[in-house]
Specification:
Shape: globular
Number of helices: 26
Distance between the termini: 59 Å
Family: Belongs to the SEC23/SEC24 family. SEC24 subfamily.
InterPro entries: Sec23/24_helical_dom, Sec23/24_helical_dom_sf, Sec23/24_trunk_dom, SEC23_SEC24_subfamily, vWFA_dom_sf, Znf_Sec23_Sec24, Znf_Sec23_Sec24_sf
Radius of gyration: 28 Å
CATH class of the largest domain: Alpha Beta
CATH superfamily of the largest domain: von Willebrand factor, type A domain
Protein name: Sec23/Sec24 trunk domain-containing protein
Number of domains: 5
Keywords: Protein transport, Transport
CATH topology of the largest domain: Rossmann fold
Helix content: 25-40%
Pfam family, one: zf-Sec23_Sec24
CATH architecture of the largest domain: 3-Layer(aba) Sandwich
Length: about 800
């Protein structure tokens, strides 16, 4: 007799999929196993996988998918703090014993049919035999995670001896640009002092500087000692001396718990490089020292090679914090920033297209060295001059790091961002693999990873925190589609294999030998989630199951890729045309356009607000807001190319709800600091006036603004007191954010309200200069309506 075990609403996935099929690669519950009960406190800190699809009911075939006009795919946040329903995985051990399908290599899961000797794969239907050890284990299913939950997290055995496993000390290196200002260095010092407080005992920390020379600091002695290696000024020459020869790596990397005060003392000795020192460098044989002398590229390449010598021995992952005050202009990887000042219009060149690609492959190439050396790079650029982040971004996005951009030192949140980044859990050496049932397959994948050179749909992620989100879109494998008669449902299985560093306090005494006490331990884990989706039998069911935030995520990924390849204008055109086609398909599906004498009626009868389908109603506003976002605004509107690149990198890793906030900010009102008036307003002056509320709270993800109306009662406390409801809301938002939002308090009629008014986009012309007009969103809808009428003729 066959037994089919019921499961939660979710399912499982795989890690490295050996011999997986080749395919198109896009160029751009609650039950803990007895084994892990003693690690309960530690495992509660491990993160959970969140998955959201554009539609919860999949189209039945390719014709239905095309007729809907909607992108079809999903987003996954593999190391998220909770899943989309707040459900956790079933934890266990012996992940290497989990049965795999002989055909598609999917993992056994609760949706598989199981008999005494064999099981049917829920993805491809293949009958697989069960090994004898699995038969014995599955005789008591209630104690086995994969038998009780479709969402599991299993420990894997580590290769190597226990001594090698415990040599997992986290390594952090700060590389500071001293070809900079006093203000920049003070900000970098503040950030690193905050970082030292966030680092766990047992961590190793190294301090380096760069300008026309690289400085390596030894802080393990009574006083800090720095050794300098001069950088050749030209773009071809390498360093005359390996960093290891100048200072052994283990002399450079200092234990944080014993050297924290000395590290702080070394930071206090940092001074900007002076013109006299640059002249002295020239006197030592460097004949053509350039003004600026920011040898960033040479320094990064040398540091990656330096650290790589101990990868897998002293550390399993090293993080480099690169503090940059301007463009690299010296040595290897120097960039020509004059292209920003060129008059593109006179050359009939699209500036938005010319400034988005990288001008040199150097930084992409050394990002590969970083990956091979086990190094994750976080770039903190504090500058308002053109730095060409289009070239530099690869250091962070390909190594699993983050890119931060601050326009000035005055109101920078860099110290808070660094503390926040280091204070949250992260996984490293991750492998992400998505499999589907046979009727459909992944088409494209999006996010900060690098694809496996051999296996399809296998992504490597060097470092992954609880916010990092990835996206996939789907296509049908053939014209057959899914069964229309209640057969097998679509299945998606996501596997995430990752490593975490477990501090000594995360293990029980019985799990540690005497020699490993006080040391960090590596733990390799496999998280699998298998999800069943329903199918829609008509277009109404597709539209009723839409998640507009996930649709926005897929759209943003697509327009970023188009912008990088073909320019911002092409990205805008793609977005506009998509909304026109969707609106036309919707009007056809609901038969809202009447025919007169064989011709369709005028555009005035077209429903451009999706009034028949509440799930689609937010989409026109989101598309309008995306077109007004600096991500897609024109160069001539004053959008700095580095800021555009920063937004591309930020938006590419946000979960759907956070991205929604970044594209169309949340605006709510308060009658007093302790009483909310309305939870949501449209971003228009009319909404503010008609609400009659005195206080407004705007959350634009990177910026939070509290705005007091000019007509607000003067007796209302300004700024809001610390113990009021509004402050509690602000603190909650800040606590849950991946970055530290800039907080502003503005009093209408007294302070400059431009920063707040710029977010009231619905009265701004979508193609214009952003000035308020009677046009804006209403005019945009009229344009869409006319375009739909032309499309439907």
């Amino acid at each position: 007799m066959k037994i089919r075990y019921s499961a939660d609403s979710v399912t499982v996935t795989d890690e490295i999929g050996a011999h997986s099929r080749r395919a198109h690669r896009f160029s751009p519950i609650h039950q803990f196993s007895k084994t892990l009960n003693r690690r309960k406190n530690h495992l509660s800190d491990l993160k959970i996988m969140a998955v959201r699809a554009t539609v919860s009911r999949f189209p039945i075939d390719s014709d239905a998918q095309e007729a809907s006009g909607l992108p079809w795919g999903l987003t996954v946040t593999p190391f998220a703090a909770k899943d989309e329903s707040g459900i956790g995985p079933a934890y266990g051990s012996n992940g290497h014993l989990l049965p795999r399908c002989e055909n598609c290599y999917a993992y056994f899961n609760t949706y598989c049919e199981l008999d005494q000797w064999a099981w049917n794969c829920s993805l491809c239907g293949t009958l697989n035999g069960l090994p004898s050890d699995a038969i014995a284990r599955y005789s008591n299913p209630q104690s086995i995670p994969e038998m009780t939950s479709s969402f599991i997290d299993l420990e894997l055995p580590l290769d190597g001896s226990e001594e090698e496993m415990t040599q997992a000390r986290p390594v952090y290196v700060a590389a500071i640009d001293i070809s900079s200002s006093e203000e920049f260095l003070e900000l970098a010092k503040s950030a690193l002092l905050a970082a030292l407080e966030a680092l766990s005992p047992g961590s190793l920390f190294g301090l380096a500087t760069f300008s026309h020379k690289i400085g390596l600091y030894d802080v393990q002695g009574p006083i800090p000692v720095v050794k300098n290696i001069f950088i050749p000024p030209d773009a071809e020459s390498s360093l005359p001396l390996e960093l290891e020869d100048a200072m052994p790596l283990l002399q450079f990397l200092a234990p944080v718990e014993t050297c924290k005060d000395r590290i702080a003392a070394a930071l206090e000795t940092l001074r900007p490089i002076t013109s006299w020192e640059r002249s002295a460098g020239a006197a030592q044989g460097l004949d053509t020292v350039l003004m600026g002398g920011r040898g960033f590229g040479t320094a990064m390449e040398a540091l990656f090679n330096y650290l790589g010598s101990e990868f897998g021995n002293t550390f399993a992952l090293a993080r480099v914090f690169a503090f940059l005050s301007g463009p690299p202009d010296y040595g290897r990887g120097q960039l020509d920033t004059s292209r920003y000042g060129e008059q593109y219009a006179s050359k009939r060149v699209d500036a938005d297209r010319a400034l988005l690609p990288e001008q040199t492959p150097f930084y992409k190439d050394i990002a590969t060295i970083a990956v091979q050396s086990g190094v994750c790079v976080d770039v903190f650029a504090v500058t308002n001059e053109y730095t060409d982040l289009a070239s530099l971004k690869f250091l962070s996005i390909e190594s699993g790091g983050s890119l931060f951009l601050y326009s000035s030192t005055d109101d920078s949140t860099l110290p808070q961002d660094m503390f926040r980044m280091l204070n949250r859990p992260y996984a490293f050496n991750c492998v992400l693999r998505l499999r589907t049932s046979t009727e459909f397959k992944p088409l494209h994948s999006f996010g900060h990873f690098f694809p496996d050179p051999q296996y399809e749909n296998l992504q490597h992620i060097i470092c992954c925190d609880s916010y990092a989100t990835y996206a996939y879109d789907f296509e049908f494998a053939d014209n057959t589609g899914f069964s229309r008669h209640g057969g097998e449902q679509p299945v998606v299985q996501i596997a995430f294999q990752y490593t975490v560093v477990v501090p000594p306090e995360g293990l029980s005494n019985s799990e540690m030998s005497t020699s490993s006490r006080g040391k960090h331990t590596l733990q390799r884990r496999l998280r699998i989630r298998t999800i069943h989706f329903g199918t829609a039998h008509n277009i109404n069911e597709i539209y009723d199951s839409v998640d507009h935030e996930v649709i926005l995520s897929l759209l943003v990924h697509k327009v970023i890729l188009v912008s990088l390849e073909d320019g911002v204008r092409e990205g805008r055109a793609l977005l506009h045309d998509w909304l026109v086609i969707l609106t036309a398909q919707y009007n056809d599906a609901f038969q809202l356009v009447q025919y007169k004498n064989g011709n369709k009626s005028m555009s005035s009868q077209i429903d451009i607000t999706f009034s028949q389908c509440p799930q689609l109603e937010p989409l026109p506003r989101l598309v309008f807001a995306l077109l007004r976002n600096p991500l897609l605004r024109f160069h001539e509107e004053g959008v700095h190319p580095d800021y555009r690149i920063y937004l591309q990198c930020l938006f590419s890793v946000l979960d759907p709800s956070s991205l929604h906030c970044g594209i169309y900010p949340a605006l709510m009102s308060y009658s007093t600091p302790d009483k909310q008036a309305y939870p949501r307003h449209s971003l228009s002056r009319a909404a503010l006036i008609t609400s009659g509320s005195p206080i407004f709270f705007l959350d634009a993800y990177t910026t939070i603004i509290v705005f007091y109306s000019s007509t607000a009662d003067p007796s209302l406390p300004f700024p809001p007191p610390q113990d009021c409801l509004l402050r509690k809301t602000i603190n909650k938002v800040k606590q849950e954010r991946s970055i530290t939002p800039k907080l502003m308090f503005i009093r209408g009629g007294q302070d400059d309200a431009t920063a707040f008014e710029n977010y009231l986009i619905e009265e701004q012309d979508v193609d214009g200069n952003g000035f308020a007009s009677a046009m804006g969103f209403v005019s945009f809808l009229d344009d869409i309506s006319q375009s739909v009428a032309e499309y439907m003729k």
